[in-house]
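Appendix B, example 12.
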Amino acid sequence: MRLYVARHGQTQYNLEKRICGRADVELTDRGVRQAEELAEKLVSYSIDLIISSPLNRARKTAKIVGEKVGAPVYFEDRLMERDYGLTDGTYEGTPGFVHTFRQFAYTYPDGESLLQVVQRVYNFLDEVKFKFHDKNVLIVSHGGVCRVINSYFKSLSNEEFYDFVLDNCKVLEYEF
């Protein structure tokens, strides 16, 4: 089984360096073009199905890819970005954000901790491995979730974990 992981296309929040967890923002025009380019690239990948975060930016990216590669798209809440609670929508330079962002057990007010994200994403990946062992699956999600997925497959130091960034509409490949 091959697992492909892609991050959604560009959003206005990405451009503005805003913290974008559960904020349901749309793709920019450039984000739509990135999704179309990703779809062109993935035509030759033999993708059987796509599982996407239900947030608009990932949903639209997945639908564009699904139409091009001829794969059904399913939506999964466990692929949503980390819930930054009251911090969502503020700027990455918000005082204290970088410090709290790097705390695995810190739960944002009205949000969730990184450990909670890891638990839901790892559980989801275990399920995908079991259910779709004979399929090639594309996951379309968010930067933080892509970071967690990468850690599922690779042993990383804390610094390597936090330094990992998957750019908009880039794709990685893993094997179960």
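Residues 104 and 131 are 29 Å apart (CA to CA). Strands lie at 2-7, 49-52, 73-75, 136-141, 171-175.
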